[in-house]
Every structure is written in C-alpha cells, then in structure tokens.
Predict the 3D structure of the following.
Amino acid sequence: AQSVSQHNHHVILSEAASLELGCNYSYGGTVNLFWYVQYPGQHLQLLLKYFSGDPLVKGIKGFEAEFIKSKFSFNLRKPSVQWSDTAEYFCAVVGSQGNLIFGKGTKLSVKP
Amino acid sequence: NAGVTQTPKFQVLKTGQSMTLQCAQDMNHNSMYWYRQDPGMGLRLIYYSASEGTTDKGEVPNGYNVSRLNKREFSLRLESAAPSQTSVYFCASRGDRGGWKPQHFGDGTRLSIL
C-alpha cells in the first residue's frame, strides 16, 4: 500500500529563514504528489502539485517542491518564510481510489 | 460559488448519541470523500463514493456509515458515538473528467464526544 512520510513533526523558524520540509512516498510507479497547507482553524488548501514533466514545481505564495524519483522524495521549499506561513503542511499522494493519502503533517511556526 | 459545504461546523455529543454530518458540493463532481483529522495522524479516509449510488470503505470505516443521496450530497453517520470519534471531519469532492483533478475540501466539522 502507498504511504507518505513526513519526517519533521514541528519546525520552528525565524522570519526570513529558508524552509525545507521533507516528504517521502512509498510507491515506485507513476505518482501524483501534492502539498497542502492548513492555516489555523481553516480547511486544507492546495499549495502545489506534481503530475509529470519538470520535477521542480512552483506553487502559490512562493513555495516550490522538487520531485526526485530516485529518492522517492517531494520536499517543499521556500527561500524566505514569513510569519503568515505559520500553518500545518501536508504532503499527499493519490491512492488507488482517487483518494489522497496524507502524511502526518508538519507544523511550521514562524517567529516574527 | 460555494464549492464544498459541510454542516454543522461544530457539534458536541454524548457517548451513544447518533449524528449525521452533511456534505454537499455544487461542482458536479462524481467522487466524494470523508476524512477525519486527528493530531499527529494527518487525514485518514473513512469512506468514499466514486459516483452516485456507490460507496466504499476507506482506511478507518468502523463506527461510521455513509449515504450518497444524490450526486451533490454525501452524508456521514455515527450511529452510536464514541469518544474515539472526537475529531475534525472533512468532506472533499473531485472531478474526474479530462484527467486527474485535485480534491476540493470543505471547511470541516469539529465533533466532540463526551
């Protein structure tokens, strides 16, 4: 069965620091990968997605992610975080039923 | 342009009570999903419906039932609520024409069972 691992449970950064959140998936075939963000008290919003093509994917709000097939990874990056980026971030892969299989999430706290 | 609408937004139940969580989407999507979100667990799939009239179990279906009433609506029922079902419940829908499309999520229902 497919699975997604997010290695960082809670990341604390100061404003302007660079961010990288790790995500690894288990499936070796064709994968569709996503990063979602959940701001406090809100629903999930899609940050970016990878289906095929350029492995460097740019999303909203300055986020990007790189798909590295050999490492089964899809890490999320942002060069300079802001206080408003404080949220929980979820990596996800499409399951066999079209559902999403989520990682356990990484909480990001950005200190002003 | 509502997208996915969930009701209620908050609910407190006593152990053993029953409750139906409602979900409706106005995007003419075939597929609908119910997830629960628990701290440190991410979102886990409870049930899904690939089309009107069909439902299937997900990862954590025990204690729940679902109904795909029509194409728009997909309800989740707790027949006898238990404290372990305290969670935030998210409904999602997905279109499936013209290739794979990402899911749209509702705002969630926060359910507490005492």
